[in-house]
Amino acid sequence: MARTLAYIHERRIIVADIASRNFLLDADLSIKFCDFTEYTELPLDTCMETADYGGYSVQTDIGQLGAVMYEVVVGEKCNFDIFKDVPLELSRGVWPRREDLPSTKGVWLGSIIEKCWTEGAFHNAHDLWKELESVRVENEPVEVLWSPKKLLSRINQFTARYRWSSSLRSTTTLMVMFSAIAVYAWIRRHK
Description:
Layout: H1 2-10, E1 13-14, E2 23-25, E3 31-33, E4 40-41, H2 58-74, H3 110-116, H4 125-133, H5 148-161, H6 166-189
Antiparallel strand pairs: 1-4, 2-3
Helix pairs in contact: 1-4, 2-3, 2-6, 5-6
Domain Protein kinase: 1-152
Protein name: STYKc
GO molecular function, one term: ATP binding
């Protein structure tokens, strides 16, 4: 997802609406972005690291992607809303206050998610992608390494607590994909 976001930003586009409901899986189980209705296309000579369109920027896209990662890993909704505390008469969003976002303590990828929510911690989506690529599964909480049976049990417990909305189906699917990738990586490293 971060690699795709880096590619989108290279094309001088700010997505502005990155949420779990805007990701799909294709037949090969590759994750795809969808719903670019809120996007902003900037001139080709724009410096994306400093570009800002009504409060939306490369940084807010990264912050929103951090919220999607949080939803996938934890299984709970997370809002990274730049208009939460902004009066209606203002049309410019502001970076969310940290206390308005959930804790990442003890969460798999928590330090990376926290950096996504810290304005400027990642210079761009490419830096986020590189940091995600460097994650070592053996340094993560034991919950990440659950057996497939325990993982399915956990997913069933999670889905039983909530009604199945399209957003929840997307989040659950992404959660399963992240978990499967983590288990696969762990198995490959321990052969």
